């Protein structure tokens, strides 16, 4: 019986081609929009995850404490973590390594070229902590760090801007008038989440930066320190130990607040992922408004159809059609329309998202969710928007319906 | 012994209007129709003949009284039961044909069989057979819009025969046709009646009623005449 009903429904739909097509179009656009937005949201999440992976996820970041006066946050306080603190942290259990950075910025000059760069004074371990790789040349060593050698490892942007096609290894660039020898080139990382160019970097021993570029009278203090933990599930315990150790080393009294702040990268990743998830849900919610509009379109068409076909309904009833049959026939018409619409909407959405991905050279995932969502949406929308018209058709009195002009 | 197809006893139909007034449309009507009969029901508009037709055709229920169709009292049957009876035992021919304009003639003729669960191939076969019977051989894949009104009514008659009904009800079947076509259609009915099909015809035209053997005249909800056609004098 179901097959017969579906066939009747299909014949009725194809009898009004233009009208059925336009109604379907509403669903096609709605589903395509949802699929597209879900894909967009997922792509954003994937990109976020990728960026964090490029920084390394098992990181604890130690920054200066936030200053709070009278309940108002006043930004970061003065750096309090010393180079020796970081050396001590490196010895904690479950710590793979630890490093720190003192940063500044300057205009880098080579020959006639110059370019504003970020300068990272750090330790050799930073490469591991920050997931950096050396593409060419080599890194500086612990010895270079101790003696404050004027060595520099530069990022890809700096290579392009200053050296062009020349090999920068062994060349000397100038920062604030002082010479530094390029001993290595870093592998490119691209932009970070905020759109900052991560490759616009000059890395050198921290002591070198302190002595030659900053001339700081606050020696041995790191702007920011990093602990790389061996395993993700040890983050919490390492963080607690690090806090205890630092408080001890800074001789903080029991009730004194920390003069530093600890941030777990895993928590930050989780937060950002959550934001990404909320974003994609929001996009899908907005897109589904067009789906709602599309389903109203179906309901409208079905109502018109029932009115227009009143005599047909009357005839069918007179010829022995049970009420249930009439209802199921109209219901299957709306389900068929929304099903076909969803099918093509899904294809359109996937197609558009792949085209978009190709244009921006981003991998856009084809999610199984899109398929599940569009299939279930099709059936739900079909039933919801067909129910009222189908009941209307079912309830028609055959005598009245036959008399209808 | 002749078989009784329809027997109605003391049939009344009352409409209850808004405001509490009631209108008796049929008052204690009774008659029998036997197999192979060709009956014309005549009456002016408002006489109650349409209401009688609707009740006989199982589209409506009487307020009181009994209606035996092939010996079974169906006066108080449910909607669902009535739908089954209409599908299996009754054929309808309407004034305005009521064909589905976007469906082939074969689809139109075989429509009632869908509700009996008959398969597509068998339906088509039966439709071709019946179209031939009403003189439309080779027309099965045409659309109703491609044929004349008289032909459309032939299709409707073929449709009414498709379920081998106990009786055919024709409600003003020539109302939308010209005289010549009307005669053709009535000749077709006469032919079918000769083949053993029971026909009840509702009309207000005397010359159409002339084709029937028996005449029932309804006036103000009551039977004013019931007898052979030729004995009726206006």
Keywords:
heterodimer; A: 405 residues; 2 domains; six-stranded mixed beta barrel; two-stranded antiparallel ribbon; elongated; B: 234 residues; alpha/beta; Rossmann fold; six-stranded mixed beta sheet; four-stranded antiparallel beta sheet; 10 strands; 28% strand
Mean pLDDT of chain A: 87
Order of helices and strands of chain A: HHEEEEHEEHEHEHEEEHEEHEHHHHH
- Helical fraction of chain B: 25-40%
Class derived from helix and strand content of chain A: alpha+beta
Going by CATH, the homologous superfamily of chain B would be P-loop containing nucleotide triphosphate hydrolases
The value of Rg of chain B in angstroms is 18 Å
Strand tally of chain A is 14
CATH architecture of chain B: 3-Layer(aba) Sandwich
Question: Which strand order spans the largest sheet of chain A, edge to edge or round the barrel?
Answer: 5-6-11-8-10-9
Q: How much β-strand is present in the residues of chain B?
A: 25-35%
Helical content band of chain A: 55-70%
Strand adjacency order, main sheet of chain B: 6-7-8-3-9-10
Question: What is the highest CATH level, the class of chain B?
Answer: Alpha Beta
Radius of gyration of chain A: 33 Å
Q: Quaternary state, please?
A: heterodimer
Beta-strand percentage range of chain A: 15-25%
Shape of chain B, please? globular
Biggest sheet architecture of chain A: 6 strands, mixed, barrel
As for the number of domains of chain B, it is 1
Q: What's the short story on this structure?
A:
Chain A is an alpha+beta fold and 405 residues long. Helix content of chain A is 56%, strand content 20%. Chain B is built from seven helices and ten strands.
């Amino acid at each position: 019986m179901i097959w017969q009903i579906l066939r009747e429904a299909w014949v009725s739909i194809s009898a009004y081609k233009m009208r059925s097509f336009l109604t379907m179009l509403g669903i096609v656009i709605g589903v395509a929009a949802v699929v597209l937005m879900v894909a967009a949201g997922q792509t954003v999440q994937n990109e976020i995850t990728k960026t964090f992976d490029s920084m390394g996820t098992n990181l604890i970041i130690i920054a200066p404490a936030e200053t709070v006066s009278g309940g108002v946050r006043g930004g970061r306080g003065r750096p309090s973590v010393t180079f020796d603190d970081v050396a001590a942290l490196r010895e904690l259990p479950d710590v793979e390594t630890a490093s720190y950075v003192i940063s500044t910025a300057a205009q880098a000059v080579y020959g006639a070229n110059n370019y504003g760069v970020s300068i990272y004074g750090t330790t050799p371990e930073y490469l591991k902590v920050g997931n950096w790789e050396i593409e060419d040349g080599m890194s500086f060593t612990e010895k270079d760090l101790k003696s404050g050698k004027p060595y520099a490892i530069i990022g890809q942007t700096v290579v392009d801007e200053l050296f062009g096609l020349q090999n920068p290894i062994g060349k000397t660039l100038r920062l604030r008038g002082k010479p530094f020898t390029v001993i290595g080139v870093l592998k490119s990382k691209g932009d970070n989440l905020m759109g900052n160019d991560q490759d616009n970097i000059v890395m050198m021993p921290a002591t070198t930066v302190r002595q030659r570029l900053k001339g700081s009278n606050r020696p041995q203090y790191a702007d920011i320190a990093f602990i790389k933990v061996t395993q993700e599930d040890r983050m919490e315990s390492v963080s607690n130990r690090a806090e205890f150790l630092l408080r001890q080393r800074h001789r903080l009294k029991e009730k004194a607040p920390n003069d530093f702040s600890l941030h777990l990268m895993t928590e930050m990743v989780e937060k950002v992922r959550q934001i990404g998830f909320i974003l994609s849900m929001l996009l899908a919610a907005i897109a589904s408004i067009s789906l709602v509009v599309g389903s109203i379109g179906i309901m409208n068409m079905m109502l018109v159809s029932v009115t227009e076909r009143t005599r047909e309904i009357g005839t069918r009833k007179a010829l022995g059609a049970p009420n249930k049959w009439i209802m199921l026939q109209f219901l299957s018409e709306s389900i068929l329309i929304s099903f076909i619409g969803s099918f093509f909407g899904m294809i359109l959405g996937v197609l558009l998202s792949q085209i978009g991905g190709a244009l921006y050279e981003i991998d856009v995932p084809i999610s199984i969710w899109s398929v599940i969502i569009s299939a279930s949406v099709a059936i739900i929308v079909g039933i919801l928007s067909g129910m009222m018209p189908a009941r209307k058709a079912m309830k028609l009195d055959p005598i009245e319906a036959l008399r209808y002009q | 012994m002749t078989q009784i197809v329809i027997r109605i006893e003391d049939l009344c139909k009352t409409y209850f209007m808004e405001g509490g007034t009631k209108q008796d449309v049929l008052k204690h009507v009774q008659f029998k129709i036997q197999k192979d009969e060709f009956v014309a029901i005549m009456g002016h508009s408002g006489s109650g003949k349409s209401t009688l037709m609707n009740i006989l055709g199982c589209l409506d229920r009487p307020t009181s009284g009994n209606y035996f169709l092939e010996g079974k009292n169906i006066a108080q049957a449910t909607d669902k039961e009535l739908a089954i009876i209409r599908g299996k035992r009754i054929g309808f021919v309407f004034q305005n044909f009521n064909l589905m304009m976007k469906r082939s003639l074969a689809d139109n003729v075989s429509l009632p069989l869908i509700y009996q669960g008959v398969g597509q191939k068998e339906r088509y076969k039966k439709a071709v057979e019946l179209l031939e019977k009403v003189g439309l051989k080779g027309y099965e894949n045409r659309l109703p819009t491609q044929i004349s009104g008289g032909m459309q009514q032939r299709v409707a008659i073929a449709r009414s025969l498709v379920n081998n009904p106990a009786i055919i009800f024709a409600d003003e079947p020539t109302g939308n046709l010209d005289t010549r076509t009307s005669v053709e259609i009535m000749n077709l009915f006469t032919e079918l009646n000769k083949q053993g099909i029971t026909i009840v015809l509702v009309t207000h035209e005397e010359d159409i009623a002339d084709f029937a053997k028996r005449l029932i005249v309804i006036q103000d909800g009551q039977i004013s005449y019931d007898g052979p056609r030729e004995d009726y004098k206006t």
